[in-house]
Amino acid sequence: MSYHRLGQVPPKRHTQFRQPDGSLYTEELFGEEGFVGMASLLYHQFPPTRVSGFKSLGRIEHKVWQQEDHRHHHFKTHPLPKEGDPVGGRKVLMFNSDLTIGLVRPSEKMEYFYRNAMADEMLFVHNGQGMLETTFGTVPYEEGDYLIIPRGTTYRVSPLTEETRMLTVEAFGGSILPPKRYRNNFGQLLESSPYCERDFRVPMELPQHEERGQFEVRIKVNDELMAYQYDFHPLDVVGWDGYLYPYAFNIRDFEPITYRIHGPPPTHQTFEAPNFVVCSFVPRKLDYHPLSVPAPYAHSNIDSDEMMYYVNGNYSARKNIEEGSITLHPRGIAHGPQPGAAEASIGKDYTDELVVMVDTFRPLLYTETARDLDDASYPMSWLG
């Protein structure tokens, strides 16, 4: 990420920086990989170590749907009911040691703040608008936004619309970043990258919170959820600077790369993380070779599980796909366009599909929630 600065910071780091009453602001190094990874320096009105109470809210476990067959899946998630708040209402559908993938359709507001100390988070906003309130400031969000939240960030999701639906991804092994091939040796995005730094929406407002009282921060750590109590507002930062902070990137700002013949999925890669990648399939011009077949060719996932989340538009390679559908094509078996799709695609020069794809490089497990959304007839859909 690029250097960013917001609010008040002293001229030199690790030096005296005093509040109006003469007391010191508390400086906090917020960094990854000890002292050698990306980091930011935050300046608090109250010491972030000041805790008035804490308790465990229990272990975090996922009920695994034991698979009798190795097959393709189609999860119809659109009917998923509204439940809980933007964090507590999340439903994990699949997971492994590297990540979780789930959905949330909240019916309640967050009355607390949250800190995922185990994973970077990516929230894809399918429906809704609102504010992501964080220690780094506020980030307004809208439909189509990827919200990237570094692990350890204290935040709250505050929807401003009645309907909110988000795809949620946790990355346990490390950071969610733009692919290395899009960046130069200094981290700057290249001219050949399908997006640039101007497309990232970083925190631009840092509300000053001086409130005292009882505030709860729920912390996910060591597969357990802890509730910490503070006697000051958790978002008490008056200024910060550095390279590590949350931001928003809208899927519609991804500039598609097109070919004369059909390009492979890495063409659409948007982010990378340890042992998985995220791709964005957006409205775009199709192949323009005179003998091109715009529909994707059949391929075997030998080393990866492929999850595709259908946002909207017309995905012509697959029938009976709904808004909010998830297809999961696991390793070891081929998949591709369904009968008639390849022939029907010939001569088409544009697609309006909008799809988020996550490819994992370790096998995924499915939860009982996913079982309840599964269309068991999907593996036979290639018969025609």
Q: Helices and strands in order, then pairings?
A:
Elements: E1 4-7, E2 26-31, E3 39-44, E4 53-59, E5 73-76, E6 91-95, E7 99-104, E8 113-116, E9 120-127, E10 130-134, E11 137-141, E12 145-149, E13 154-159, E14 165-171, E15 200-201, E16 212-221, E17 224-232, E18 237-242, E19 247-250, E20 269-273, E21 276-281, E22 284-285, E23 299-300, E24 305-312, E25 325-329, E26 334-335, H1 341-345, E27 350-351, E28 354-360, E29 365-366, H2 368-371
Parallel strand pairs: 8-16
Antiparallel strand pairs: 1-18, 2-3, 3-18, 4-17, 5-25, 6-7, 6-29, 7-14, 8-13, 9-12, 9-14, 10-11, 10-13, 12-19, 15-19, 16-17, 20-21, 21-28, 22-27, 23-26, 24-25, 24-28
Q: How would you describe this protein?
A:
The protein is mainly beta and 384 residues long. It is 2% helix and 39% strand. The protein has a domain at 255-383: Jelly Rolls (Sandwich), CATH 2.60.120. The protein has two helices and 29 strands. The relative contact order is 0.20.
